[in-house]
TrEMBL record:
Any Pfam family: CYTH
Top-level division of the source organism's lineage: Bacteria
CYTH domain sequence ranges: 4-192
UniProt-listed CDD domains: CYTH-like_Pase_1 (cd07762)
InterPro entries named in the record: CYTH-like_dom_sf (IPR033469), CYTH_domain (IPR023577), Uncharacterised_YjbK (IPR009195)
SUPFAM superfamilies in the record: CYTH-like phosphatases (SSF55154)
Name of the protein in its database record: CYTH domain-containing protein
Species assigned in the record: Geobacillus stearothermophilus (Bacillus stearothermophilus)
SMART domains from the UniProt entry: CYTH
Length: 196
């Protein structure tokens, strides 16, 4: 198990703005790698209600189970547990959670046996260091939709926000704070259900 505090600043992009960021930082196709996020919650969305999220990330043949919990200051406490491919497959096919993450869910008042896999989001991502932080340029595919985002991971929110705003202004991109990927995934899922 590994825990970390993460401060992320996100901005949704249009397809044209995504292309402009690629051009500004000279990111060719080789700069991007693929990762998949598989999202979990209870049927009543108990994690979402507690401002938490649970996912398995598949990246470069490795699998990591991550519980994200929003802190009072808006930062995220992330708890990561590496998984073997067979452990990841078991969770994706409905085997109940156990171990560290299950214990943390129980502390939140969530029965780990009620957790279900809801779906997946695929990201084509480039990342590079930028002014004391890390920039991530993402193209996301989920539930028959596609979106683009620029994310800036920083150590200090105020200084990071100033640098991020300067970058967006230099690129001619308006500030559009973005809900996190799992929130966008669930919003799209709800939208699709309402159309049925």
């Amino acid at each position: 198990m590994h825990q970390e505090i993460e401060i992320e600043l996100k901005n949704l992009l249009t397809a044209a703005e995504f292309a402009a960021v690629r051009a500004a930082f000279r990111l060719d196709d080789g700069a991007f790698f693929r990762q998949e996020n598989h999202y979990f919650d209870t049927p009543s969305f108990a994690l979402k209600e507690r401002a938490a999220a649970l996912r398995i990330r598949a990246k470069e043949g490795r699998f990591t189970l991550t519980l994200k919990q929003t802190r009072a200051d808006g930062a995220l406490l992330e708890t990561h547990v590496p998984l073997t491919p067979s452990e990841a497959e078991a969770l994706l096919t409905g085997v109940p959670l156990h171990g560290t993450i299950a214990a943390l869910l129980a502390e939140l008042g969530i029965d780990p046996s009620n957790v279900r896999h809801f779906g997946s989001l695929v990201t084509e991502r480039a990342q590079w260091p930028y002014e004391g932080g890390t920039l991530f340029l993402d193209r996301n595919f989920y539930l028959q939709s596609e979106d683009y985002e620029l994310e800036y991971e920083v150590d200090h929110v105020e200084a990071g926000e100033k640098r991020f705003l300067r970058l967006l202004e230099a690129l001619g991109i308006p500030r559009r704070p973005a809900p996190n990927k799992i929130a966008r995934f669930y919003a799209r899922m709800k939208e699709m259900e309402e159309r049925r």
